[in-house]
Predict the structure.
Amino acid sequence: MKGWAILNSIALAVGGFPLAAAMPDRMDAARAAIHPVENEAAMRQWLGRVPGTMDYPPDFDATLRGQGSAFLVEMSSAPGCIPCGDLWGKLGRLRTRFGFSVRTIGEEEAMLRSGRLGLPWIGHPVAWLRPAGDPDRLIPIAIGTDLEANLARNLYLGVKMQTGVRPAVGVRAMAKFTAIVGTRNSYGSAR
């Protein structure tokens, strides 16, 4: 009993909560990981906290330039969604640089895709990469807007995964989506 009291005192001193206190559940964790923004300033503030990709593999440019036209990026969007406009602009620049096609899809299609892949629907934008001729081979490359360098990295990893790199390698590298999304107030209610 005395040992428990000592551990509890240490937990209070270090973490500020007793060991017997309720730990956050999955929903609390999910809410903490989602960053809805209503304006450009809030979005820029969140993007300022995102670490950017600095190092690329030697075949980065050759892979994306050589295979970009064989792939399509599809993203969800909604009128008035600030992160959607930001992501659209960045994908447009990457399209020009690497030759990817980019188009929008509706909210219902985006929610169905998220559900098929076991991803929770958290809002717009979400972007997927797929081979131009195969609508069923989807890989999410962005959940929320992100830094352009990170989007380029995710495009590269998505192309590599679609063309034979072991999926676990790419998934681990892409696992840190920003979840900087528009608020329901900024683009209407979700169905």
User: Anything to note?
Assistant: The chain has nine helices and six strands. Strands lie at 35-37, 71-76, 101-105, 126-131, 139-143, 180-182.
